[in-house]
Amino acid sequence: MSTPKSKKSQAVLSLSHVSKVYNLGEEDLIVLGDISVTITSGELVAIVGPSGSGKSTLMHIMGLLDQQTSGTVTLAGHDASSLTEVEASKLRNKYIGFIFQQFNLLSRTSALENVLLPTLYNEDGGDKSVYAKKLLTDLGLGERLKNYPNQLSGGQQQRVAIARALINDPAVIFADEPTGNLDSKSGHEVVEILKKLNAEGRTIVIVTHDLELAKMANRTIKIFDGNIVSDTQKKI
Amino acid sequence: MKISILAKSSFISISRNKTRSFLTMLGVVIGVLSVILLTAIGNGLTVFVEQQFKELGSNLLIVTPGEIVNSDGGFDQQGAALSFATSKLSEDDSKALGRAGYPITLAVPLTGNNGEARTSEGKRSGMVVGTTPGYSEVRNTKAAKGRFLTEGDLAGNRKVAVIGSKIADKLFPGVNPVGKLMTINKLRFEVVGVAEAKAAGSFGGPDIDSFMYVPITTAKIAFGAEKVMQIMVQSATKESLPRTRALIESTLIKHLDSKDFSVTDQSEILKTIQTILGVLTTGLAGIAAISLVVGGIGIMNIMLVAVSERTKEIGLRKALGATPNNIMIQFLIESAVISTVGGLIGILLGVLGSLAIRPFFPATPAMSSILLAFAVSLATGIIFGVYPAQKAAKLSPIEALRYE
To answer: How far is A124 from chain B (nearest CA, A)?
Structure first.
């Protein structure tokens, strides 16, 4: 298993003049205007904005789930501007981890198997179950490996989802409203985990409308009406 | 990508909806079951008929009274109906054929009356066949106990009988009937032999095991059996059958002064029956195959439901790196598993069903139809699974993840 990335200031993901326009017949709907942003290795970034601001679309483009209308995307040294679906799948699998608001665990599938789900689609088909057990154990779920999602609390489910995001040692982890479905205690635990992972060198991008949550990040990018309105670095 | 793990997730989703999967399988089960059962019945019938004909002896031409086949080559119903009543064939004609020479090797006349056999132990009705010793050879009927009729029996008009196994069982339970006395229509006969049992007769056809064979001369005197219902003529070889037929016709026309008789060839009849049964079997299998198609549509239907139910799962898998092909294979495995398991259950039930009806009906499940049914059920799952699987593969991950 590779070790977490070291804290080098190296561009992991960069977007240059990215726009997203939906053609609605008569008029165009501009979801993203002109976005240029670079995420460097080891950063903990929060992308904030009200709903409808375009932050989700931005995350989808950053996460290679969607394609921009114009501009370029570079991920871990790969030009990801115009990919086929298969190429995008492979890059996602290798370089990107997702944490969702809804957890999105497979039911009737154990915590361990849920964590191993991305490895199904790895090109080098090695067995990562030892690593998966370690990740779950580190997240305090060592006793819950065989449990199904419906036997776990919300906080536990989100920790399984975090382990799943880590299994392929991605270059960037996207967390889309990771605490949105959790009570404040569990939400706090998840925040602490994300901080700890960042401290270990992981690059994390949190997408949220919750300004309180955004405070945990070292860098906050505010989006409004499809454009970046501020990009601030926390003073250390 | 690991197919075995994808297969595992297919099994998980199948077991998650047990009732639904089972009902979907049922369509395939019924389809395969009916294909196997119906072809088994068809094959069984063919085998049975062939066996019947073989037991009746080969290289045989049968001369029957009346012109069953008319001059146009068509079947003359009236001729057939009147044939026995107005039979002009006699034992003499048979003798004439016997003397006609190569390629006729044997001519055996047959008279027939219904008779009731009786001993102090019981009674049983059956056909009293007046014939000559040659019957044993042309009809491939041997004496299991004692002997068959001899020329001596014929010459002496002896009241002797060779009885079928069913008569022997009924009238002489537990004893060897050879040398014992019995009555046929109240006339005393000595049993000189018991004919070996022929399974034939259990399914249609004459009940050969209830026959009583007596010398044709005795039958004539004792029962007034003048009319010969058929003369069986054995040909030297299969190849000489046409020449034998010509010789029969020329001899009989000379002897009878008319063409008031018909000559039929067993192998021709067999061929016709085989053709009919073949067409019938194929037709039945075709009808059964329709239910397999209906089963396939059932699979397609349920897979479409599964795809829309699991839109979110598909979106998640795609987000985590599944390619469209990965998704497609996962769903194809699922539909193939449903149809293959259904197919295997259908095969099992089909074979068991064939065995179950065997005592009443000669069903023989053919290996070829079993393999075909398996292949077709697998193909059904894949073919009818393609459309839903493609639909799943084409889903956009964002749309799918957003789906509630």
So the answer is: 8
Mean pLDDT over residues B108-115, rounded? 85
Q: Is residue A149 part of a domain?
A: yes
Q: Is B270 on the interface with A (CB under 8 A)?
A: no
Looking at the partner chain, which of A89, A94, A125 has a beta carbon nearest the beta carbon of B323? A89
Say how many residues make up chain A: 236
Q: What is the domain count for chain A?
A: 1
Map tokens 């998650």 to a residue.
B16
- pLDDT (0 to 100) of residue A6: 45
Q: Please report, for the domain that includes residue A197, its CATH number.
A: 3.40.50.300
Please state the pTM of the whole predicted model: 0.71
Q: Give A18's strand partners.
A: A35
Instruction: Tell me if A121 and B1 make a contact (CB, 8 A cut-off).
Output: yes
Alpha helices, DSSP H, located in B181-323? 216-223, 241-256, 266-309, 311-319
Cβ atoms of B87 and B206 closer than 8 Å:
no
Q: Which of B5, B316, B390 to mutate to test the interface with A (most CBs of A within 10 A)?
A: B316
Question: What pLDDT, on a 0 to 100 scale, did the predictor assign at position B68?
Answer: 58
Establish if A108 belongs to a structural domain.
yes
Residue A213 has φ and ψ, to the nearest 5°, of: -65, -40
Taking contacts as CB-CB distances below 8 angstroms, the residues of chain A near B321 are 89-90, 92-94, 118, 121-122, 168
**How many angstroms away from the CA of A200 is the closest CA of chain B?**
23
Mean per-residue pLDDT, B253-269 = 77
- Say how far apart CA B277 and CA A174 lie, in whole Å: 69
Q: Report the mean per-residue pLDDT for chain B.
A: 82
User: With DSSP H G I counted as helix, E B as strand and the rest as coil, what are the percentages for chain A, rounded to 5?
Assistant: 30, 30, 40
Q: Do B321 and A121 touch (CB under 8 A)?
A: yes
Q: What pLDDT is recorded for position B64?
A: 81
- Nearest CB among B5, B12, B319 relative to A65 is that of B319
Find the closest chain A residue to B312 by CA distance.
Answer: A104
Domain membership of residue A199 (yes or no) is: yes
Does the distance separating the beta carbons of B316 and A89 come in below 8 Å? no
Q: What are the pLDDT digits (tens) for A215-235?
A: 899 999 999 999 999 999 886
Contact, A190 vs A159, CB < 8 A? yes
Phi, psi of B102 (to 5 degrees): -55, 140
Show the low-confidence residues of chain A (pLDDT under 50): 1-7
CA–CA distance, B402 with B404 (Å, rounded to integer): 6
Q: For B131, list phi and psi in degrees, rounded to 5.
A: -155, -170
Nearest to residue B3, comparing CAs of B350, B334, B290, B231?
Answer: B334
Rounded Cα distance, B277 and B29, in Å: 25
HSE at residue B309, side-chain half, CA atoms within 13 A, is 12
Residue of B nearest to A170 (CA): B320
Q: Does residue A6 lie in a domain region?
A: no
- The tens digit of pLDDT for each residue in B285-298 reads 888 888 888 888 99
